[in-house]
Fold each of these.
Amino acid sequence: MKKILFILPTLQGGGAEKLLVDILKDFDYDQYEVQLMYFYEKNIYLSQVPPNVRKIVPFYIKPG
């Protein structure tokens, strides 16, 4: 099984974040182990990430 790691500061909003969520919905999870690393607490797209994606949060950064 191939492993893929995506790293983004946040899924708070914007084009790149929405595009990543759309890409994650199309993966063949029988062939790929997908992980998503993010750092910010506020993430409006997080609920749309498929359950097959392992979420990694090494630490939280509070915006502001």
Amino acid sequence: MRINSILTSLLTTVFLTACNSGRQANNTYDWGKLPQQADLNWADSVGSRKQPEGTIVSANSFGAIADSTKLSTEAIQKAIDSCAASGGGTVTLAPGHYLVGALFIKSGVNLLLDKGVTLLASTDINNYPEFRSRIAGIEMVWPSAVINVVKQKNVAVSGKGVIDCRGKKFWEQYWKMRKEYESKGLRWAVDYDCKRVRGILVERSTDVTLKDFTLMRTGFWACQILYSDYCSINGLKINNNIDGRGPSTDGVDIDSSSNILIENCMIDCNDDNICLKSGRDTDGLRVNRPTENVVIRHCTTHKGTGLITCGSETSGSIRNILGHDLTAQGTWSVLRLKSAMSRGGTIENIYITRVKADSVRNVLATDLNWNPQYSYSTLPEEYSHQEIPEHWKTLLTPVVPEEKGYPKFRNVYLSHIKATNVREFISASGWNDTLRLENFFLYAIEAQAQKAGQIRYSRNFNLAEVTLDTKDNTPIISEHNDKCNMQFKSCLLYTSDAADE
């Protein structure tokens, strides 16, 4: 008993020390000369505020077997439930490979995956019971994830082990369905009809810590934080480009959640690397819950469509996002803002600084009308007299009045970015004279790019201390912009006299 007590105390001390060392420290950021200094006081209070402590429970003593041919789901779940019932603590596994379906972590429990422990996700979707959740912006019935934290408090999954989601079966299923659906005019529906298993779901929970393990080959999104508060994601390695091209394999999705800390992560995926979301269209506007107060620091991204992406699900709004000391290698964009003309919501107060980028498509990309085939739902005539799925009805419900669906992008700050081998420095466009990008500030940026890019339909768009070296000496195209200030150390700027204001 004394040895177990000492071991419990040691594990708890090490875990608490490691997690508490990641708390946001006061820092000073340089955004250049601004009309009003940024208020980032909220950034000191993000992340999980506590971690589980208590007894140590071995899942092997409940029958978990390191045999990749036999399911250990029930045994591991019994260990988790027993640990929670006894007041909380740590559930451990001996080194080896364990075949599992959906696991549900309970309040007060830390599932410790030590080095040498691998959870192999079952490829049988029947091992993932369905329940109502939110998927790609709408609430609908969907399979559970491999690891689930639903309506819990003070939870952790930690350790140097591996969660291998073995998602190739779901990827192949999607690509087959995608081809069929596109031929029928149903591109907008296939992502919702093709049910795939997420890696980790944290939903309606608080004070959750995900730390140090490797998450790979997820069938769908790797890690979704949904309707939750005060969560920390620290030291995760997410690799979804093993064994093929995984569609919709986002790295980390913060979905209508608040006070989140993401740090020290490495993400290689086939969609958005770190993404902020808040619901889609009518259903997202109904829920109307923002993603806010998120700090992203000391992370590296490789393949994927955005080091930091906001959208395309913007209906509940996205605000107060701070990213600093980041690296993008082969990622599409450093900062990507995307929405659609039926999403609504506002993206605002986005702060990105101290970034090194190489071989990216853009430093900044914005799109208020992203991917129309996916973003807008129209029912083909042959389905008009048929019974259709409930989630189709949700997707087909129009936003009324129409202007409620117009998204807004404003108050965006980028500074101290060094980027090499860039395809196009900037692609920033509003929609028209009445729906502009507003209050963008780019400061102290050095970029080597093939093309300079364009800025259109903006108001108060500012570039200062920017050094831009383009391979073909193409200028930045500036059109339909109002009250813009562009000062370069080195750059060409083309202004259309007929269009500029």
Amino acid sequence: MSRFAIIVEFELLEGSFDIFHQEVLRNGETSRREEPGCQCFDILIPNKEENRITLYETYDDEAAFQQHLQSTHFKEFSDRVSGLVTERKLTKFSVSNDA
């Protein structure tokens, strides 16, 4: 079975980068620490773009990702940042180079 990956692109309300960045750092750290199915939670900051953050996350499988979405820390993160995001795009992937 191949791993499951997502890329989430966030467009942020002007001036909210620092707050959102701190919140997403906390969410990523908690995901890696508390979710055995979370393999990677990378926070990507595009060069010279002040209002965007992209996440690259990999999980054992889609069920592990669904567990992530149901976690208390994810729901709290979503509540805290809901007013900071102007656009969100999520793309799901299967990792094709798994043995």
Amino acid sequence: MSATETEGLFAHLRTACAMEWAAYTDHAFVRGLGDGTLPEACFRHYLAQDYLFLIHFARAHGLAA
């Protein structure tokens, strides 16, 4: 699949779920993370949760292999 085809597919999928996409990308956490206004405590909590997720994801991936 070419880059142009991929971009077209992405645009189509994004349009098909416009409300969900807006909720996902225009969330207060995402905006704060992007513009640097997210409180440090929130960012630290996010990092801790992401760390736990990645450990369990890697374990599940390893078990599946």
